[in-house]
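Module 6 notes. Inverse folding takes a fixed backbone as the condition and produces residue identities as the prediction. Think of it as a translation problem where the source language is geometry and the target language is the twenty amino acids. Below is one complete input and output pair. Work through it position by position during the lab.
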């Protein structure tokens, strides 16, 4: 009986590490795709955006998704939690085309995800 418990524990640990490794790999690949100049991201030059221009990139109807934080504008692409112009876990508070400076600190990840995004400009 003790051997079965030990074997089950070992299998659970191996599967758990495999899942964590897969999640880390997926995040790294998503970041690499966002920052390597993919075809969608290549259209954006590092330039200033007005609030009105930012709003046009709402992530809907084949529009790209741009967000601003602390005066920097970022391209969001390749993240499953961003769909149809909205960050699904935020319940509508985080949407494409907006300045999210006041919203991002309320998220569980805070500003840590910004390093995974491609900076495409500044907010005027």
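Target side of the pair, the amino acids:
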């Amino acid at each position: 009986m003790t051997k079965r418990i030990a074997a089950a524990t070992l299998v659970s640990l191996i599967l758990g590490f495999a899942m964590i490794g897969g999640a880390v790999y997926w995040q790294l690949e998503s970041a690499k795709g966002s920052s390597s100049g993919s075809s969608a991201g290549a259209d954006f030059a590092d330039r200033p955006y007005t609030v009105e221009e930012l709003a046009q990139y709402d992530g809907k109807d084949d529009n790209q998704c741009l967000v601003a934080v602390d005066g920097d504008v970022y391209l969001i692409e390749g993240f499953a939690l961003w769909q149809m112009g909205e960050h699904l876990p935020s319940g509508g508070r985080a949407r494409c085309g907006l300045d999210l400076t006041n919203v991002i600190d309320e998220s569980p990840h805070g500003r840590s995800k910004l390093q995974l995004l491609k900076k495409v400009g500044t907010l005027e």
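Reference fact for the lab report: The two ends are 67 Å apart (CA to CA).
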